[in-house]
Model the fold of this input.
Amino acid sequence: MAFLLGLMPLKSTGVDVFRAAHPTYDGRGVLIAILDTGIDPGVAGLIATSVGAPKILELRDFSGEGRIDLTPVTPDADGRVRVGGALLSGADRIGRLTAATTWYGGVFRELPLGLLPAADVNGNGRNTDVFPVVVVKATDGWVAFIDTNLDGSFEDEMPLHDYRQGRETIALGTRPLTLVANFADAPGGGGGAPILDLFFDTMAHGTHVAGVAAGHDLFNVAGFDGVAPGAQLIGLKIANNARGGVSVHASIWRAMDYAARFAAQRNLPLVLNLSFGVGNEHEGRAVMDSLVDAFLAAHEGVVMTISAGNDGPGLSTMGLPGSADLALSVGASYPGVFARAPQPGVPPARDVLAWFSSRGGELAKPDIVTPGVAFSVVPPWATGDEIKGGTSFSAPHAAGLVACLVSALAQEGRRVSAAELLQALRVSARPFGGATILDQGAGVPVLEAAYQWLEAGHQGSVYAVHAGTAASAAYRRDGVASDTVTIFTVRHLAGLRAAQFALRADVPWLAVPEAVDASPRTTEIAVGYARAALTAPGVYIGTVTARNPSDLLAGPLFRLVNTVIVPYDLGLKPLYDERRIVAPAAVHRYFVRVLQPGGTLTATVTLPDSQQQRATMRLYEPNGAPARSAPQDVEVGGEEGGTAVVTVRGEDLVPGVYELDVVAPPLASVTATVRAELGAVALAPAAAGLEASSAHPSTVTGRVTRVVVGAERTYALAGRGQPAETLRVRAPAWAKRVEVDVQLPPELWDEVTDFSLTVYDSTGQQLRGANEAMNYAFGRLSFALTDTLVGRPLTVELYPAFAKLPGHPWRGAARIRFLGREKALGSGSELSVVAGGRATVALPEGASAASALELPEGFGALVETRVTSASGAAAVRRTVVVR
Done:
């Protein structure tokens, strides 16, 4: 049914038309490297290519998640061997395969693999099994024996060689996890225990991605294919799946290098897909971006498709390393077939730009968008989860498009550069109406048009563009004070070098010369802004397009993207926008200036007809990160009610310009009333408690109340480099919820590719809902406590991943808070603050606040102070009070 409905949305990019016209141009002869969570090589659709060749050529682990610690073991005279404390029979069977006198043993444990069902590798309903492993050196290399059925014997087990020797796999149990072995000799080559990594996909992400890129006869349904069914794959596992699918130290870089060497040894054209990313703190300055650019500069024929991220629809949300200059950064469209199933007599729903797809801002990204939802294969343990959405699945769609183009040209006797391939996709793309270049880049590519562009003999080119800093676009989030100029620097990186740039602006408020001579090194281009056109609150986006005068049909050489945001100033008056109509799949953005530290921001979205309408609300901090007070989409309408409110308390507020978005669903418009206002006062820490300052241009009077809401403790973090760090706490009897905040220096974030927070109970079980892959230098993990965890020790693990080795010492801070029981302190008091003035708000004595709750050792009472004015505008701040 999924095949018949078109749930692998190949029509969106014209793959169906291209395949009908060119049946053999389906990726055959091309290698796609999937850098991801692993690939299950046993699922139907990843067995063979369209010409019958093996689909998967190699599976290699760079995560260490399946590393088996091996130590010498010795079989006894009775044909038994002791492994991990268990005595197993069948050693004589192993002995027949080896002449080595030294054997090695270890265990494969389910518990470190995380939660059910993925960690239940043999499908028996638990994740606490331990599988003994014996490794010996046979005549044809290292081989592993695993007691797969836990019967205490190796007699009935098959030897497992390295995957590259014979593509051997084993699977355990009823909903099996397919396992593959990777062997390496002991470091230094001096003998000793080998290195054994078991390769598997306990997240289902990489398997799904592989099916989108290159699956053939998925689910054993003839003709149910991914984008490039003729292409072959190598699966390179970069992720620790138990910790939320996070990358590990230098795993991305090491996998890229391995893929390049593997393809070169076989003389295969290479496409890399990386369905991974985290948010940028300093756009364009991430170490991983520079590694990607250096790699692609050294391999001019290699295209690397990278997910844009899923933090949309806010501006300035593009992730790294999709922000790398030479990467093909891929955003997501939302296929109409997933919005409404085909119905007789009803026109098919149109594709729309996906609301979750990350947007540009400081970066002139994404480059293109492709379908970000698909029905694809998953490992057997994940059956039922075949539909997945996100830019993780638009990137492999783009990788498949590239593979088809490379295959086509190779069969015609041509090899094309990455620059030509990228330009062909951009020039062929169709933009969505009403969306900007920051939303969608060039738009959705059309495969046949891209092929025809290449056939016409146009030459591609790649230029690095910087708007005065490392960022590739000009982005002014707080308006411009006067007529101003931005100086763009343009540097040629690859492909055709134009002698002159013909320039054209698409909005009247931009001024640019008609033509500029291109410098052999770096060309500077001045772009002027007319402030008179940039005064009303809103978002202004203008683009200068540069073309080669000698080949205008080749498409843009580069674009100079300029964004000016004029925010509402909430310090002057609240935002109130009544009955705003938002078109289907559209987003309406409000930018609001909040400058006072300690202020309280309240945003409200109301749907007048909430039974018939649905909308999504999202709030972003000044750096583009989803607001820590509301990190996920907030649904409005239906069962959620007709009004949604997000409050940013004083301790969480980041002074600057926030973005508030209202998003309509794919098939229906919404009418929304939107409000944003500041609390009565700003509450900032002071020596005598809190200092209240007026947030409005008039005298504010209000009532002050104080409530103890929980307990909090701050920890200084001093990481040692690569190892995980841990904090241990014990939940008090009254606690119902735990929050863990982690703050890293923003400059450190430029050096990492990941950072995860995971909480374990006293038995080593990962708590459900207690795993968070941080997306920015600030991360918040929040989860509910069950009664069985109250009073028991909990371990908070902090797990960094640096872009390159070796990892180095790092610092940060963590705050752990327990929430649950609330107790009012006193009956309240009155407060009056004149415009521009200040007043002191006393906090309770430490002993008084502490007596309200039984506090864990080292924790202070968490007191919420609220100032409510006569108008109802509330100021809220939580403060830790110690004894």
